[in-house]
Amino acid sequence: MERQSLEPAAFIPPVGQPGRRSRPRSQGRIWALRGIPEELREQVSRVARELGVPTHEVVRAFLEHGLKSYRAGSLKLEPAPRTVRFTLYPAGKRN
């Protein structure tokens, strides 16, 4: 009975292809940003349909234009104070 010598690499499992999450592209997608009113989402989606481009490209164009305008001083943003919210899980006591 003859023993076969196996190389150490024989014990290492092969690397598979990087996995991608399957996301149905045909379904309407929900934006990942919180606090965006539905009416605003619909308006941006409408612009994308009119131009025949993906919605995320319209969002990017608006963001880039808005940032450029803000940096140039033509878009003024004035933050307003808001009330502090309470939590049941203060920092350090999350267990």
Can you walk me through this structure?
This protein is an all-alpha fold. The protein has a domain at 35-72. The protein contains two helices and no strands. The chain has helices spanning 38-51, 55-72. The longest helix has 18 residues, at 55-72. The N and C termini lie far apart (60 Å). The model has no long low-confidence stretch (mean pLDDT 78).
Indicate the topology.
Elements (H helix, E strand, L loop, with lengths): L37 H14 L3 H18 L23
Biggest sheet overview: none
The fraction of residues assigned to DSSP E strands is under 5%
Using the CA coordinates, give the radius of gyration: 26 Å
Number of helices: 2
Q: Assign a percent range to the helix content.
A: 25-40%
The mean pLDDT is 78
Please give the number of β-strands. 0
Query: Spans of 5+ residues with little confidence (pLDDT < 50)?
Result: none
**SSE string:** HH
Terminal-residue CA separation: 60 Å
Short descriptors:
mainly alpha, 95 residues
Task: Provide a compact summary of the structure.
The chain has 95 residues and is mainly alpha-helical. The chain has helices at residues 38-51, 55-72.
